[in-house]
Amino acid sequence: MSQPVLVVLGAGPGLGLAVARRFAQEGYAAVLATRTEADAEPLAQTLRDDGHEALGVGVDLTDPAEITGVVTGIGTRYGRIDALHFNPSAWREKDPLHLTVPELLEDVALGAGALLPAVQAARPFLGSGARVLVTGSAAADEPSAAAASLGVQKAAVRNLVTSLDATLAPDGIRAVAVQINGVLAKEGPFSPPPIADAMWQAVSRPDDGWSPHVAYDG
């Protein structure tokens, strides 16, 4: 396939769809992965209605084996993956005095750990110039005590992006976490479209002077 391919893991009707639309406007075919194919296909249909190539797939992001199988299947189907957008996080309203170790590890496994099998499975299909894009959050630096696991997830995934970028860079593949320093909204600078545009700008930078961390301040 000559058309570049974007895979969005943890897609939804907000930022995930907006990122897929922004990449589609640049000529990418978009694969949107949600918990079930039934949830993903309407998102893909939205892009197809606009004339873009899009596919919806289901994946359980708490199951590393399933992540591996789905990402490998996408790469095999298209013969390439040019951008992998990792978007999931777990919201659990528990402060540090009530959050248990199993709950913390469960949330971090989704919001950070799932990136590992995703990139490992995508690696054979990532060519020079491919990008790994991660949705970051100000919670990495200013966590909410009411949802303590979220800050740990975002700090962990940002750290992981640094290691991934250093590992992939010799082959011309780069990784970046775009840290959203604000609360997502339906309108304004923290609505999905301008954030998606910032994410496109982050991945379309040249390798010279590359940084694996980009802040979006609206």
From TrEMBL:
Superkingdom classification of source: Bacteria
Key words, A-Z: Oxidoreductase
Molecular function, one GO term: oxidoreductase activity
InterPro entries: NAD(P)-bd_dom_sf, SDR_fam
Membrane-traversing stretches: none
Coiled-coil annotated residue ranges, if any: none
One of the Pfam families matching this protein, by short name: adh_short
Family as reported in the entry's similarity comment: Belongs to the short-chain dehydrogenases/reductases (SDR) family.
Name of the protein in question: SDR family NAD(P)-dependent oxidoreductase
Organism lineage string: Bacteria, Bacillati, Actinomycetota, Actinomycetes, Propionibacteriales
